[in-house]
Amino acid sequence: MPQYLLLPAPAANRVYAEAAASMVRAELTVLSRAALATRVGSIESATVAGVEYLAFEADELTDRDLGFLGLTSAFYALFEADGDLLRPVAVPSPDRYPSDLLTILKYQGKTNEQFTRLVLNVTAASTARPEGVLDRTLRVLDPVCGRGTTLSQAVMYGLDAVGIDVDTKDFELYSSFFTTWLKDHRFKHAAATTPVRREKSVIAKKYEAVFAAEKADYLAGAKQTLTCYAADTLRAAELVRPGTVDVLVGDLPYGVQHGSRGPRGLVRSPLDLLDGALAGWASTLRKGGAMGLAWNVRVAPRDRVRALLESAGLTVLDGPGYDDLRHRVDRAITRDVVVARKD
């Protein structure tokens, strides 16, 4: 059976770089289990000529297999071992747009782009239709989207994306940035911000951009949509039609610099947010859709988060890969990821 070596790209974040190899190994394990029918064997670290790779055996890789491997958050290059030699393997890039969509915005507290991509990957792969991330038919919702890192990554993949955030400043910054980015790159588009009313009251501001990577696609109706709401995420079920989302991902407030706002003011634990929001979030998922959440285990134990997901009618996925995504962010934050599916 052929052996392959995946060369990970270096992480820009120093602390995340220390965990990057183990995180990518867990990510590849999830992709193998959920999307590749375990055709990729166990993934191990291997050092060749002083360079660290991730090594695995696999049957002859198909175009579909290579497509999923190319999604990997830290993917840089893939080689097939041929004795002492490494033969490069061409892997298609999943990115539809220039990378500056993800890198231009810089601000304190921004989630690492590699980690954002990893959470989106493992969640999309865990849906009933993992190939939808390759054929660009999945719809993504981030109900705590901040300044849109997850939304931008979904757009990079060619997916439709929806975001909700209570912070009007973040909403305005991201919507302004995205429109400017579309104009700067001369992508054919239409964008507007409008109020959302329910029973004659304004409950949200809505930004919607319709665009395409190629002018011909736009004119032919093959368009992408990015939608953002400045609103309380507890109103997600009022803003996003039930059963229209395939992938829901959220990087929950860590309880250090940021919390969630509730009736008692700033809440440091994400458990109160989940308790109030999960039913609405889950209602937006299609059958077979998946939810992936990242949070700080120092303020919310994994078993409590799992119990809340199960009480919302979701099936938590566990085992190799899914159980191996915990890592240190800084002295006050140890981050974990949980993935659950709506069966």
From TrEMBL:
Q: Which GO terms describe its molecular function?
A: methyltransferase activity
Q: Which UniProt keywords apply?
A: Methyltransferase, Transferase
Question: Which residue ranges does the record assign to the Ribosomal RNA large subunit methyltransferase K/L-like methyltransferase domain?
Answer: 136-261
BP term (GO), one: methylation
The record's listing under SUPFAM superfamilies reads: S-adenosyl-L-methionine-dependent methyltransferases
Q: In terms of domain of life, where is this protein from?
A: Bacteria
Name this polypeptide is given? SAM-dependent methyltransferase
